[in-house]
């Protein structure tokens, strides 16, 4: 599933093509998952101008000049691509937006249909989706603020970080990578961490996310940049997808266990359960 670095890469990729442009054409599939409904989204987008595109957690938010926001969540397999109007549409396209003064179309593809789009005011989006329950943004928060958001919880690290309510944007890949780099077992309770462990975790969260954005995110499965290129941070994964391989820091074998309902990768030696 695309996480913070992948969505950030998509935002940066589409922004120069759509910002300041008016939506003159909307096409949608019959099975487009949309809130409040696909017809209302399509009707509300036509004629609107996109004033800004930004990210919150794993959501892409395109702000319109009519006080509404087009929200896109890529789910498991969603892709937002900029393609030329004449370029044939591939299968599983659910929404396409055509703009004034450009031949480039913004197309939303989603073969597995776990993704969704929504159009509403910020307050509406917050009540319809998980947007209203998101925790702090790790990239615009200080390590101290991140540590404070995690410190008091009695939940396990993996659980809390996947939930989005304390810190927004990390999913299975970046939680595993961060916990390995901070030397913390995914089952540790947040409130058992020492001050040093908390500050190391907070620093690693920022570092991993920044490096992943620099490398255009991780392409595992369907994720693509808006221009169709793949990300390269998967080559920098130290534990994710590497179960059975040797730990890059010690001689132990990396393992994968189901934790918080997700396949979790870690080193049993570098990340002791205590
Ligand atoms: Zn190790």
What distinguishing features does this structure have?
about 270 residues, 11 strands, about 20% strand, binds zinc ion
Bound molecules: zinc ion
Question: Kindly state the mean pLDDT as a whole number?
Answer: 96
Q: What fraction of residues sit in β-strands?
A: 15-25%
Element-by-element helix/strand order: HEEHEEEEEEEHHHHHEE
| Total beta strands | 11
Oligomer: single chain
How many helices does DSSP assign? 7
Q: Low-confidence segments, ≥5 residues, pLDDT <50?
A: none
In one word, what is the shape?
elongated
Structural class: alpha+beta
Computed Rg: 20 Å
Helix-residue proportion: 25-40%
Query: How far apart are the first and last residues' alpha carbons, in Å?
Result: 30 Å
Short précis:
The chain has 274 residues and is of the alpha+beta class. The chain has seven helices and eleven strands. Strand 7 and strand 8 form a beta hairpin.
Mind explaining what this structure looks like?
The chain has 274 residues and is α+β, with helices and mostly antiparallel strands. 28% of the residues lie in helices and 22% in strands. The protein has seven helices and eleven strands. The strands form three sheets. Strands 2-9-5-4-3 form a five-stranded mixed sheet, with helices on both faces. A hairpin with a 4-residue loop joins strand 7 (93-99) and strand 8 (104-109). The mean pLDDT is 96. Bound molecules: zinc ion.
């Amino acid at each position: 599933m695309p996480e913070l670095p992948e969505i950030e890469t998509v935002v940066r990729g589409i922004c120069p093509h759509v910002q300041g442009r008016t939506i003159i054409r909307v096409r949608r599939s019959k099975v487009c998952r949309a809130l409040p409904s696909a017809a209302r989204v399509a009707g509300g987008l036509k004629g609107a101008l996109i004033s800004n595109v930004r990210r919150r957690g794993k959501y892409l938010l395109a702000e319109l000049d009519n006080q509404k926001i087009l929200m896109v969540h890529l789910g498991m397999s969603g892709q937002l691509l900029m393609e030329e109007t004449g370029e044939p549409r591939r299968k599983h396209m659910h929404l396409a937006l055509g703009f004034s003064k450009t031949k480039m179309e913004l197309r939303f593809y989603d073969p597995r249909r776990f993704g969704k789009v929504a159009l509403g005011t910020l307050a509406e989006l917050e009540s319809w989706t998980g947007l209203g329950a998101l925790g702090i943004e790790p990239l615009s928060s200080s390590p101290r603020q991140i540590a404070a958001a995690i410190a008091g919880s009695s939940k396990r690290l993996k659980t809390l970080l996947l939930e989005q309510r304390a810190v927004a944007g990390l999913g299975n890949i970046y939680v595993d990578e961060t916990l390995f780099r901070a030397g913390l077992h995914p089952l540790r309770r947040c409130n058992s961490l020492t001050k040093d462990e908390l500050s190391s975790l907070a620093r690693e969260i920022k570092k991993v996310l920044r490096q992943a954005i620099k490398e255009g995110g991780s392409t595992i499965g369907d994720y693509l940049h808006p221009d169709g290129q793949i990300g390269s941070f998967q080559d920098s994964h130290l534990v994710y997808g590497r179960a059975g391989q040797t730990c890059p820091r010690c001689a132990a074998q990396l393992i994968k266990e189901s934790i918080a309902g997700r396949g979790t990768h870690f080193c049993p030696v570098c990340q002791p359960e205590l």
